[in-house]
Design goal:
The chain is an alpha/beta fold and 367 residues long. The chain has one domain: Rossmann fold (3-Layer(aba) Sandwich), CATH 3.40.50.150. 44% of the residues lie in helices and 17% in strands. The chain is built from 11 helices and 7 strands. Strands 3-2-1-4-5-7-6 form a 7-stranded mixed sheet, sandwiched between helices. Helix 4 links the parallel strand 1 and strand 2. Helix 3 crosses helix 4, helix 6 crosses helix 9 and helix 7 packs across helix 11. The longest helix is centred in the middle third of the chain and has 25 residues. The protein is globular. The two termini are 37 Å apart. Bound molecules: S-adenosylmethionine.
């Protein structure tokens, strides 16, 4: 099934919402702030004499993280040029059609008020727009955007990979994602889908980006030799246990795969070079614990493995519950994430660290 029809983060502002459980994603943006800042400044020096700056965040979701992008870019551009009072800034927040944009809209008045308080009434115009749509395809007119940003969104594929044989057999029996024991055919099918999707993303953005414009993209990535790259592997283990106990239908698990792929840095490089519209600036990896879901000022060394498992479960539930409940039903979600928290705690006891390897890349549109 196409991802755009089923994927959404948990909306609203409740205890299990993305709004309340996206601290990990915020920390990733904070850790990469220097790269982001350097690239925004670089874009401003590449492109001069514009009457309006247009920037877009792709896959903004519905919580405060969307405003983190807005306030970061606003501050950087304001400090760099001191001219926003003459050159307006238009900020486009994009996500899929089912995204909870209403939660964002309700936060806008408070946000405008805070910038006016911070920067005074002389501060120039900043207009926030929503752009619902699929980033695997066109979102903006030709030569329109100066700067694209996307964080923790591009590892979502447009659809789960399919088996390439004609027989209706499961591609990835008993799992929902690639694991360290998956046969090569599973990895190849995922990579093939990623290459196709990311290439379409790049060709679409190359039409929309002005020459000299820049994109900064952060993916959850993968290391080929690591045992556990993504909590989705553990979700598959839990679902398998639930199949053994008769709580989940075996066939449902066998035929369901998450539309998710963590590329290596090299795989990202290869697609960008083959597409040919961009020059790579930065290409790096950066690690963060699966459980990095605590406020910055709280000392996380006090956490035991049980608590770490629970933090990981909260963060994953806000992301995966909507898509998993379409397939497996709402009723098993409490049990699934309870078991997931316990299994992650057990794995932390055995392995000590469970980390995401993130890939960050910046690219400039060639003339
Ligand atoms: C984990 S959230 C990240 C949100 C935000 N950037 C952050 O860092 O907190 C990933 C978002 O990407 C969006 N997304 C995934 N595939 C997409 C697509 N093809 N087009 C637009 N948005 C997409 C999802 O709907 C989701 O809201």
């Amino acid at each position: 099934m196409a991802t755009e029809r089923v994927l959404r983060m948990k909306g609203g502002v409740g205890e299990t919402s993305y709004t309340k459980n996206s601290l990990l994603q915020r920390k990733v943006m904070m850790k990469l702030k220097t790269i982001f800042e350097e690239n925004v400044k670089q874009m401003m020096s590449n492109i001069t004499s514009e009457s309006c700056w247009r920037v877009a965040d792709l896959g903004c979701s519905s919580g405060p993280n969307a405003f983190m992008f807005v306030s970061n870019i606003l501050n950087i551009m304001d400090n760099a040029s001191l001219s926003l009072n003459r050159v307006p800034l238009q900020i486009y927040l994009n996500d899929l059609f089912g995204n909870d944009f209403n939660t964002i809209f309700k936060l806008i008045p408070e946000f405008y008020q805070s910038i006016h308080q911070e920067k005074g009434d002389n501060f120039g115009s900043c207009f926030i727009h929503a752009t619902p749509g699929n980033f695997y395809g066109r979102l903006f007119p030709d030569n329109y955007i100066h700067f694209f940003h996307s964080s923790y969104s591009l590892h979502w594929l447009s659809q789960a990979p399919k088996t390439w044989s004609n027989i209706a057999e499961p591609l990835n029996k008993g799992n929902v994602y690639i694991t360290s024991t998956s046969p090569p055919s599973v990895y190849e099918a995922y990579l093939k889908q990623f290459n196709k999707d990311f290439n379409l993303f790049l060709t679409s953005r190359s039409e929309e980006l002005i020459s000299g414009g820049i994109m900064v993209l952060t993916f959850i990535g993968r290391e080929k030799t690591k045992k556990f790259n993504n909590p989705a592997e553990v979700i598959g283990m839990v679902l398998n246990d639930m199949v053994q106990e008769g709580l989940v239908e075996e066939e449902k698990l066998d035929f369901f795969d998450l539309p998710l792929y963590g590329p290596t840095a090299e795989e990202v490089r290869q697609v960008i070079e083959a597409e040919g519209s961009f020059t790579i600036g930065t290409l790096k990896t950066m690690k963060i614990g699966w459980d990095a879901n605590l406020e910055e000022d709280v000392d996380d060394s006090i956490l035991d493995s049980k608590m770490r498992g629970e933090f990981t479960a909260k963060s994953m539930r806000a992301v995966l519950e909507p898509i998993l409940s379409v397939e497996f039903g709402k009723d098993i979600m409490d049990e699934l994430f309870l078991r997931f928290a316990k299994l992650v705690a057990q794995l932390i006891d055995e392995l000590e660290t469970l980390e995401y390897t993130n890939v960050v890349v910046s690219v400039t549109k060639d003339p």
